[in-house]
Each structure stands twice: as C-alpha cells, then as structure tokens.
Amino acid sequence: MINAITSISFVILVHPLKRFAQVLKPAFPENAKINPVNTPTFWYGIIDLWRIMAHQDKDPFMKIEKDMVVSIHYTLTDNDGNQLDSSQGQEPLVYLQGHQNIIPGLEDQLEGKTTGDKLTATIAPADAYGEVNAELVQEVPRNQFQEPDTLQVGMQFQVGTEAGPMLLAITALTDDTVTVDGNHPLAGVTLNFDVEVVEVRAASDEEIAHGHVHGPGGHHHD
Ligand SMILES: [Zn+2]
C-alpha cells in the first residue's frame, strides 16, 4: 500500500513538475530557480494525492456530466415566491444526469457542478414543463360525466387518447359545462430552483442501461 502510494505520488508530483519546468525554461534565465510550491501543478498534485488516499470510492471533485448519479436538495418557487416543492426535511432527490430524469433546464444548469456547489436557477417554461397549449383546454357538456353532480374544480382524472393516457384537471364548472385542462399543472410557469449538490457518483452500467438510478433514492426492481 505504501509502495503504491509512493509510486503514484511520484508520477503525479514529480512527473508533471518536470514537464512544467520544461515548459517554463525558455522564459527564464538558465540560473533562475522555480520554487515548486509556487506552481499550480504542485498543488494539483497534492490535491490528486489526497483524493486517492482519502476518497478511494467517492470523488469530492467529480463533476456532473452525462451518466453521473446526482443527489440534490432543492426548493422550487414560482415568480410570486410561492413554494411549489422542496426536498428539505426529506431524502435528497437522486437522478441520473443526461437521461431526462429531470426537466432539461435544471439538468443544463447542473452540468459541470460538483458536490457542495449551491446554485439558483431560473428556468423558463420552454425548458421546464412547456408553454400552456390552449388546445388542451376544452369545454365539455356536464352530462358526459358519469356522476355530474359530484364534480368539483381541481378534480383530476385520466382519459385514454391516441397518444396514450392523459391527465385532465377540472378548472371551471357551470350548470351545463365542465372546463377540463390537459396541460401540466406547471405548464407556462417560470421555475426558480435553489439547489445544493449533495453527492455525485458514477453510475453503474446497469443504471445507464436502464436510464435511472438504483439503490437509495432510486428504482427498486422486484
Ligand atoms: Zn432499473
């Protein structure tokens, strides 16, 4: 183990330093001395060594990119400051980057971030749940419903369409008509996220093949 670390540290510390000195050499007089502690390469080498020794399995500097499993805490508000959703007080949200597990706008903002990073992201509807589609709002006769007297604004129900099942919400009622809306409840809404990256790890081959996370916070297969 000691031998392994010693040889690794030789490669990381000494080898780049040699390269660095060679690059700098032409710009310095022959007798100029470069203090290695003042070179960035030296400190990158120290950081690399620490990563290898202290974090064999978890890399604190692992950046978010495609096929990374990412854990985040988040709070979501609309432009009026209303809190729409939050992971605070619960387990963090765990998702697989680059597999459309979360809205594209948030995925874009998280790309390149690392454990401990905090960010605020304002995401336009086009990069979130889309704009409101007026064609998905329809007025239908109340007597087409099985129990027309029990209907209330806010009720949701599923209908079969050519494109698959669709969730409709009742948004208005008259004595004779029911207004139903097939838009996502957050369609047309600009989303403001407060995010903290809790953990970043590489996904397993199986997770990448399935397109989702397994284990804590992820999918559980029978
Ligand atoms: Zn799976």
Quick gist of this model?
The protein is α+β, with helices and mostly antiparallel strands and 222 residues long. Helices cover 23% and strands 28% of the residues. It has three domains: 2-54; 68-128 and 188-210, Chitinase A, domain 3 (Roll); 134-181, Thrombin, subunit H (Beta Barrel).
The tally of strands reads 9
Poorly predicted residue ranges = none
The secondary-structure element order is HHEEEHEEEEEEH
Number of domains: 3
Please summarize the sheet with the most strands: 5 strands, antiparallel
Which architecture of the largest domain does the CATH hierarchy give at level 2? Roll
| Relative strand content | 25-35%
Shape: elongated
What does this entry look like structurally?
By secondary structure, the chain is an alpha+beta fold. The chain is built from four helices and nine strands; from the N terminus they run H-H-E-E-E-H-E-E-E-E-E-E-H. The protein folds into three domains: 2-54; 68-128 and 188-210, Chitinase A, domain 3; 134-181, Thrombin, subunit H (Beta Barrel). The radius of gyration is 27 Å and the shape is elongated. The site of zinc ion has 5 residues, from loops. Zinc ion binds at residues 210, 212, 214, 219, 221.
Give the arrangement of secondary structure elements.
Blueprint: H1 2-24, H2 40-54, E1 68-77, E2 83-86, E3 93-96, H3 104-110, E4 118-123, E5 137-141, E6 156-161, E7 164-173, E8 177-181, E9 191-202, H4 205-210
Antiparallel strand pairs: 1-2, 1-3, 1-9, 4-9, 5-8, 6-7, 7-8
Helix pairs in contact: 1-2
The protein binds zinc ion (ZN).
